[in-house]
Request: fold
Amino acid sequence: MSANATATRPAGPLLTFKQGSSQHRTFQVIGWACLAIPLLVAPYVLPSFRVGQLAQCAGWAVAILGMNMVIGYSGLISLGHIAFTGLGAYTTTIMINESSVPFWLTLPIAFVVCFAFGALVGLPALKIRGLYLALVTFALAYTFPILLKIEGGGIARRTGGENGQNLKHRLLPTRLTRSLLMLNGKDDPSKVAIYKYFVLLLIAAVCFLLMRNIVKSRAGRAMIAIRDNQIGAAVSGVPLSRQKVLTFAISAAFAGIGGSMLAGALDSVGPTAFDANYAVLTLMGLVLAGAATLHGCWIGGLLVVFLQDFAPRLVKHIPFVHASPVYARAVFGLILVLVAFFLPGGIVSAARRLKARLVRVIPARPTASRPERASAVVGAEAMGTTVGSVTSR
Amino acid sequence: MTTPLLEVADLSARYGAIQVLRGINFEVNTGEVVVILGANGAGKTTTLRAVCGMVETGGSVRLDGEDITGKDTAEIVRKGVAHVPQGRGTFPELSVIDNLLLGAYVRKDGEVNADIEHWTTVFPRLGERKNQPAGSLSGGEQQMLAVARAMMSRPRLLLLDEPSLGLAPLVIEDLFRRFADLNATSGTTMLIVEQNAELALEIAGRGYVLEAGEIVLAGAAEDLRTNDAVREAYLGA
Amino acid sequence: MTLAQKLKARMSAGSAFLWGLLAVVVIALIPPIIDGGSQLFLQRVFDSMRNGAVYAVTAIALVLIFKATTLINFAQANIAMFGTFLCWQFTVKGGMPVWLAIILAMAIMAAAGATIERVLVRPFDPSDHLPVVLITFGVAAILEAFAGGIWGLQSLQFPSPFPTKPNDRFTIGGAFLRYETVGTIAVMGLMLLVIFTILKRTKVGLAFRAVSSNVESARLVGVRTGRTLQFGWALAGALSVLGATMVAHQTLLDPAFMAKLGIFAFAAATLGGLDSIGGSVIGAFVVALVQSMLTGYGQQIPGLGWLKSNFALVIAFALILVVLLFKPAGLFGTRRVERV
Reply:
């Protein structure tokens, strides 16, 4: 019996590009256009409340951007970043309501406030191991809404306690922006929604760009080096303590901006928007979308808002069972378990693998080391200091 | 010709992407003391770990004819293999007695206490420190504890990973003398991997030399001891 | 080793600071305590004992799993909660005697714990922490959803295993000590006894201690580490249900009732030492006592009067922070808990 004379070859990639060639560039442009065009067109075609949801997605995307910095890039499991998101949101709200600070100015203020608190949380984080850190930060997430309701010291009065607070001055378009965004004519809520969406989209884009630069910088590579091989990183001159605290601080700041954005999107804040449930939800969004990737963050933002929206309805439509919306949370739990088993890299990694099968890019030159997998190449000269403060053994 | 107690054929092992063993062959017959010599990084520890199923392996490992390649460590141990790992592997928070009891974990007979008596007599210092945490013992005492623990399971095959590491010369001499005694009195088959060739070859019947994951030399212990290359590399002559 | 030597060996600067802080708190409390009188003091102590037992019981389950695996089971509280709901179902709807229902619920959740370990935790490398977080949070969410779905979201009344009529109490020094409290503490004590007996005198307990101490060596002596860990998870599941049923009468039964206690249990374990069972029990009573004292007398201590309500949780959290800053391993934990 003869063996198969011609074994079938696996299908090769559909498209092949030489890196840097004009076809490659065209392909990339088309790719980005596929992303950008819906982003720009959507608010004009979707009903206003969906636009509002998209605005929230922008806020959550930035919040998750912060979380991703610790969990994805640094390998430190912080489940408490939702507290920083809440802190940013409340900071913005209080600044607007008490001191009439314009919205855009509250952003850097929230950034600084959350940076400071992030550093504060980062300090004890130096001394504790992986899951213990997760537990401690989760305690933070759990405690935060309660801290908001403390009656002493006038805290509850300022935060609005149980019921939260509304923004006294909402985000409203100016004459210039109206014409830019084609919002002229009679004023109605849908126009405001569109305006808000674009404002928040812009802020989100800026944040993503910032994060991308941070990750590619030396500090970013040091962070990833710590995640992949802590001892190797230390030996290469990365000052572990300082780096970790810095990571916490910056990630908290980003999470805080996300919160400020959410306050702008919702025109109100309340303790239930930033509690332990949302801590788990944002975690779910991040890992399902893809931790340690930038794309994962905006996909995560979409997931947080829309899964919450659709899960209760999905659950009602399960044949025979017609479960009550209460079971929506079971969907989230199931997602968490399934992601852990089957999709640890999230949607982004699955998409990348699919893309790799369909498209091949031939490199023009040997590629430099990829930031996502930096071995401890960060030398002492890169960090500029000596290994003085390595964590105690 | 009886089946060797341990027969290893074309054994390869890797840690992730790093190939440590490149297809080695050796055997240990019942009652023998066999030594595997090698420098740091040659793959000695990996060899023992491969036998015990603690690393990804290729090739075959047979215990008394039975194929145990890549089986679960606990299952291999239950078949009568005792492994004294590098660094002793004691349970530092548990008492000496508890460590010994754990050695007998797989046994179902009633003679465990008698054995504890026996070993605390053979190693009197263990008896003195019966209830102290194992972590408070000196290096040499911990090594003895590790050996006693291994013997508590009444193994058919005793694997010793660099037993001399970190011990003072006098202690090492004493230790190896005891190994020889052990083999003589209880007939326990031993496979010792060592850097310290001198003493190991003295008590062994046969030996192998492992270099960069490959067996480069094999023969009677006597022959290895007088072999120039071996002397130069491992005996500091 | 003599006591002095033992103390010297254990006491580090951080530890000394913690004890010092505790001493300062105690001293600051003395004037208001004397002011309030012995009866009030005793009452506050007794009230705290009930909380202490509750925190202790929850902390033990947390510590058991951490000790053996350095893993934290974020689903522990909800496993206990679900078991309590089952128990309610058996006794209130099924007519079973309370104690029998409790035992049955314990058995079921022990099986659940064992299943979770086998199916959801064992496939993963324990040094990779994120999957464990995802899995345990996932299980917690699923349990919470099902509890809410099956039994509804309003709080249910849970029958206490102890006599709970208003007069069921001792009167000591003018203060009331309820039978319930004594009963809870007794059960907790029994639980501890059972745990320590299992650990010190049984083969499986020895295996468990071996796995906690050195998992690789445990395999080398033939311990089936997977099964041993499974046993640990099952035991933790059963014990946490037992603890929850002790509490459920006092705080109404709803899907979030054990999660609320989680922070306090965690504070207890942090203070006492995340890998010390005895330590976390002591930590639990200390946390409860400090809360009771500060909540009760706090207004009279200069500087603290402004933290009027929600004191308890804030104190717990502050405690956690303080311990972590100065001695992450807690008062009785080993340094293994700290970051290496």
